[in-house]
Amino acid sequence: IVAHKEENHKYYEYFRSFFAGNFGACEARIHMLETCIDPDADLQQMLVKMLASKDEKLLLDMRTLVTEMGDYYLKELLCRRLFELDSDSLKYRNMLACAVGGQGRYGEAEKLHRQCLEARKNALGEAHPNTLGSINSLALAVQNQGRYEEAEELHQECLEARKNALGEAHPYTLASNNNLANTVRNQGRYGEAEKLHRQCLGARKNALGEAHPDTLASINNLALAVQNQGRNGEAEDLHRQCLEARKNALGETHPDTLASINNLALAVYGQGRYEEAEELHRQCLEGRKNALGETHPYTLRTIHNLANAVREQGRHEEAEELRRQYLEAS
């Protein structure tokens, strides 16, 4: 938590990259940290103290910070504390659901999102932006469990409602465009997904700028749609562009940056450069173990991808051991 004063602490890189790119937020965050936390205190003790706090503003500020850092575990702890303080708050219930989903517990997240969606419909109405936010979040939880047709229907519903309520160029509407395109890609409709992602990327560049995390997400997703059509060289160029931008904007160990390393490795693998792909997968695996934990679905997927790269180099026993680890943990 006080990593901006401790270069050897594991969070230092997160803070450094975050503070370097957002000076207004930097000033507010540093002030918040310095007034709320004793820099000479034991980190673990201060974390325990913070998670017992009744200061909702402090907890919300820290949640914002760790969300931008990509620390989903600490985000969940903060959200659970907020929910303990006000279990009737739909805002806190939604935050908790998103934090749970960020750690790969999609069934649990779906249950919370359904509860929040029904409550928001009753309290706010079906067309309220917060209600639409719950539809979007529910669709993502469903999508992450492989129920793509159901997710597509929810994303389409949310997209049309957001267009009407917010306009076509609103960031939330563009998020729905992006999520719908991903669901289309998940169902094997790669040409259609590519077209949707190109439209979304152009709109996000205009609305948010080229370095915004949402714009970078669209570059990543376009690369995946291109890659799914066998154009691995083109996909590699897009993934490298996205990776460098994410390193600069988010830091080298942020989950989104690690996702770009994983996707670049797959594009390299698709061109038969298995040794290079193995190196990238090992880098990604180490980062995901530290950032997400050893049992997160993304970490397990990386083990599976690493096994494939090892197998293609003729090291079958090593590949089989990695596959065994993957199957036992899945």
UniProtKB/TrEMBL annotation:
Keyword Isomerase belongs to the record: no
Compartments (UniProt record): Cytoplasm, Cytoskeleton
UniProt KW keywords: Coiled coil, Cytoplasm, Cytoskeleton, Microtubule, Motor protein, Repeat, TPR repeat
GO molecular function ontology, one term from the record: kinesin binding
Gene Ontology biological-process annotations: microtubule-based movement
Gene3D superfamilies: Tetratricopeptide repeat domain
GO cellular component: cytoplasm; kinesin complex; microtubule
The name this protein goes by in its record: Kinesin light chain
Family: Belongs to the kinesin light chain family.
Entry keyword annotation includes Coiled coil: yes
